[in-house]
Amino acid sequence: MSKEQVFLLPDVGEGLTEAEILQWAVQVGDSVEINQILVEVETAKAAVELPSPYAGVVGTLHGQEGETLPVGRPLITILSDVSGTPHATEPPTTVAATAPDREALLVGYGPQEGSTRRRRRRPGAPPSPPTDQPTAPAHVQTPATAPATERTAAKPPVRKLAKDLGVDITTVTPTGPVGTVTRDDVRRAAEAEVVAAETPKFRPLEAAAETRIPIRGVRKHTAAAMVASAFTAPHVTEFMTVDITATMRLRDTVAARREFRDLRVTPLLFVARALLLALRNTPEANASWDEPAQEIVLKHYVNLGIAAATGRGLIVPNIKHADQMSLRELAEALAALTGTARDGRTTPQSMMEGTITITNVGVFGVDTGTPILNPGEAAILAVGAIRRTPWVVTDASGTEKIEPRWVTQLALSFDHRLVDGQQGSQLLADLAAFLHDPGLAML
After folding, report:
1. How far is CA 286 from CA 49, 303, 355, 397, 401, in A?
2. What is d(CA 48, CA 25) in angstroms, rounded to the nearest whole number?
3. Active-site position among 62, 139, 416, 436
4. DSSP-derived 3-state class of residue 114
5. Which helix (H) or strand (E) holds 81?
6. Is-catalytic flag, 416?
């Protein structure tokens, strides 16, 4: 006798209402074990793999790849053999997001503090290749209207790249292991299409002149959050241009030290450290506004957010308790955060409970901007491009002269309900002073 057990789509983040099915890892008729990965879904915050709460045989997939389901809707039905005879079926049972006693046993499910490990390989499975050289999934669910052999093997990030470039992934010639499509395959196909498009040919009048892209996932969440922030918190932005030549020299000195030689020491590391030090004099910028309780919540810890542009859109993972880290620990955390974001492995938990954010627009060659606050935070710092600039310098004798110096522009936006003009100016001035003369940090 088989028992139907229905797994409902859980809230894998904090108050999420829906998720998009990116890729099924099983198909109807497959045998599954507890904690085996069933599906990868994309929430408003990140891509998450969901493990099975049951052992049995897949009976029904309640959604197709690309479909968005609300939290609490059936995701998959698993048939469990409870008597050894398949002649009768018991009424279905369900597991939903409100069953923590079951879900707590699942490996890799839900927010996990500090978890950046890849999924453990099954015994006998080949090693996982680099992100841009994916292996074909052992069992990939195909649409009901097409044979399983017609399914193009490609990981979700590769599929996303193809969608962004307008490439039909089913037409791409695969060169990866086991016949999988890689990022390079997609890029070559896109380049070929550009060359073909440049060849003069007849263009019918009814040809599409625009492309419509569904707003969903991370981009949908980011858009809603930015609109809410812009029209809820009264933003004030202040700017300062700073000579950071001394900090750049310090960076070269630190990078040459033995304990930092295995790390990429960037100017962002020292900007982050300077901001953490400056917050000690202006703790109001590390706070949140509790509207229902009509309270200001001062945080006695700093979860430092770093804005990161990814293929799925802008995300802001944060470094937990960054204020308690040494310079090397902070450098390691920054490297781990950016690497995880680049690989598309940022977890929902790593994007929760941030207290203040840095956005490094300088990597795009931009001098400055007016950043919008990350919802729930009191301040955000934009760091512009670092350039060699003619600068007036006063020497020890009081003589002024012009020298080429390393200069950057800082822009600090803050919530005027929490931080007044004097406090915001003090924070920006302290930050600039630490970057101009890192020796002040000794005081």
Report:
1. 33, 9, 6, 40, 39
2. 13
3. 416
4. coil
5. strand 74-81
6. yes
Count CA atoms within 13 Å of residue 299 on its CB side.
Answer: 25
Q: Is the model's pLDDT at 378 over the cut of 70? A: yes
Q: How big is the chain, counted in residues?
A: 443
DSSP 394-415: E-TTS-EEEEEEEEEEEEEEEE
Q: Residues spanned by CATH 2.40.50.100 within the chain? A: 1-109
Buried b (16+ CB within 10 A) or exposed e, 216-225: ebbebbbeeb
Angle at 137 between CA 136 and CA 140, to 5 degrees: 120
Alpha carbon distance 126, 119 (integer Å): 13
Report the top-level CATH class of 217-442. Answer: alpha beta
1-109 has which CATH code? 2.40.50.100
Buried b (16+ CB within 10 A) or exposed e, 29-52: ebebeebbbbbbbbbbbbbbbbbb
Which tens digit of pLDDT belongs to each residue from 305-361?
A: 999 988 777 899 999 999 999 999 999 999 999 999 888 888 888 999 999 999 999
What SS3 class is residue 186?
helix
CATH 3.30.559.10 residue ranges of the chain are 217-442
197-220 confidence digits (pLDDT tens): 555 555 555 556 788 878 777 777
**DSSP-assigned letters across all residues of 345-360:** ---GGGGSS--EEEE-
